[in-house]
Amino acid sequence: MTAVDVVDVVEAPAGTVVGRRTGRVRRFLGIPFAEAPIGARRFAAPVPRGRFRQPFDASRHGATSQRVPLFATTTIPEPSVPGDDVLNLSVVAPANGVSCPVLVWIHGGGFLAGSPASPWYDGRAFARDSIVTVTPGYRLGVDGFAPLDGVPPNLGLRDLLLALDWVRENIAAFGGDPGRVTVAGQSAGGGAVLALLSSPLGKGRFHRAVSVSGGFFEVGADAARSFAGRLGDRLGVPPTRDGFGALTVESVQQGVRLLRSERGGDGPLVLGPVVGDDVLAVPVAEGLAVHGHGVPLLLGATGDEFDGGARGIGNAAARAAGTRVTDTLFRAACPRAAASRRDATAGTWLYSFEWPSPVLGGAVHCADIPFFFDVLDAPGTAEALGTQPPSELATSMHADLAAFVHGRSPAWEPATGRLGDPAREYGRPGATSAADTTGVFDPVVAAGSATAEAC
């Protein structure tokens, strides 16, 4: 019997929010947490949204910061939704939930693209496990991370901090516990988690952290300004607040896409968190050694990340380049983070996702998300994972993540950043779904760099 979709109304400090309930899952989509970043606010710090004067219709996804996808095809379905109110968030909650732990999920996309409206981020399985899921949007690319004169640095991270403030003030009305908030994310979202954990401004805004294929993704200010300069030349405007502000977000994002295409990707990251302000005072690894010591951290990477799809003798060079990105940008970050937090009072736990997708050619970037969210039936999963991805692996991975959000420590030993640290292996061929191992991550960072693409 199909569950009936009915109106669901919440009275929150933000105002009256009207969503939908289907069976035991409640959805409130596209709720603005800040004023729309348009006009004078486009390159300004986010401003909290005023209380709704009329009931807010939260029955559909809100506008996305992504106007132009970075690539023609992406592993994760990443819809672009038009509109100005891009600083919005969606809440998926269990029916009749009270004081449930909260998972705030930050999407990836290389800080240039991505969408919180992806069906892979639907929190229905977490709602089943008495967890409230929140998926915020944040400014991307030039609007979120370009270091421009007269513009507060790291606007995208400031957006996320304000979203966490909204959660603290409003989530109880949706059945969540503001004292049990886990911030989590994948790829750029995982990097944002580590940045927020290393920031003095993160204190008190969340209580546990999960970084899925994240890393130390801060971008040098000089390199970011150089990219902005080349982008301005490409678009025919000075690389300034007024120059980029005279163009639409769509045209700026289209320029980023074309410039990266012309220059062969222009490096793994061209824009992202910049060090030197009140949000990110020092590099992330240094910040982790000082801040967030009372916040338990779970982090890991996939076994192949960006080297799984280039198989065969003819693609040896591409595979070697992808392996360098996999090792230096993603996998090496796991023991480095553990080493930085060696003196933390809360533990750091590592995992490695090893299940090889028969479609993508390995345990590649993004392939683990449908397992963690337990949404193997979501649109796009068959195209990425094949028609028979192992449901028992999704059950195991989702259960571990849900238990962590609920406040339980992982079943394996914490890591300290030393060779031989324990790590949970997920989906290694020939191993059970609950297999643990040691020595998965080598903390020695390999030399070299290569080009990566955000999914």
How does this model look, in words?
The protein has helices at residues 124-128, 141-145, 155-170, 188-197, 221-235, 241-245, 249-262, 284-288, 316-331, 333-340, 369-372, 381-385, 391-405, and strands at residues 5-12, 15-22, 25-32, 56-57, 88-94, 100-106, 132-136, 176-186, 208-212, 297-302, 348-353, 422-426, 436-438. The longest helix has 16 residues, at 155-170. The chain starts with a strand and ends in a 17-residue tail after the last strand. Strand 1 (5-12) and strand 2 (15-22) form a beta hairpin. Helices cover 27% and strands 18% of the residues. Strands 1, 2, 3, 4, 5, 6, 7, 8, 9, 10, 11, 12 and 13 form a 13-stranded mixed sheet that branches. The protein has one domain: Rossmann fold (3-Layer(aba) Sandwich). The protein is built from 13 helices and 13 strands. It has 455 residues and is of the alpha/beta class.
Count structural domains.
1
Supply the number of helical segments: 13
**CATH architecture call:** 3-Layer(aba) Sandwich
The class by helix and strand makeup works out as alpha/beta
Integer-rounded radius of gyration = 21 Å
Under the CATH scheme, which class?
Alpha Beta
Relative helix content: 25-40%
Described by strand count, sense and barrel closure, the largest sheet is: 13 strands, mixed
Q: Briefly note the CATH topology name.
A: Rossmann fold
- Averaged pLDDT: 91
Based on DSSP secondary structure assignment, what is the total number of beta strands? 13
